[in-house]
Amino acid sequence: MSKHMVFDEIEALRKKMNDQYKKHSAITPELLDLSVKLDQLLNQLPSSVRKTH
C-alpha cells in the first residue's frame, strides 16, 4: 500500500471518528485511543505526503 493510500485511509478513519463524535457527543476511552493512534500514524508519514492532500 502506498504512502498516499495510507494517508487517505487515515483521513477517512478520522472523518468517520469525527462524524461519530458529532452524532453521539461523547468522547469514550476507545475514541480517544483511536484518535491518538491515528495522530501517531499521521506523524510517521513524510510531510510531503501530508502536504499533497
TrEMBL record:
<dbReference type="GO" id="GO:0046983">
    <property type="term" value="F:protein dimerization activity"/>
</dbReference>
<protein>
    <submittedName>
        <fullName>Aspartyl-phosphate phosphatase Spo0E family protein</fullName>
    </submittedName>
</protein>
<dbReference type="Pfam" id="PF09388">
    <property type="entry name" value="SpoOE-like"/>
</dbReference>
<dbReference type="InterPro" id="IPR036638">
    <property type="entry name" value="HLH_DNA-bd_sf"/>
</dbReference>
<dbReference type="InterPro" id="IPR018540">
    <property type="entry name" value="Spo0E-like"/>
</dbReference>
<dbReference type="GO" id="GO:0043937">
    <property type="term" value="P:regulation of sporulation"/>
</dbReference>
<dbReference type="InterPro" id="IPR037208">
    <property type="entry name" value="Spo0E-like_sf"/>
</dbReference>
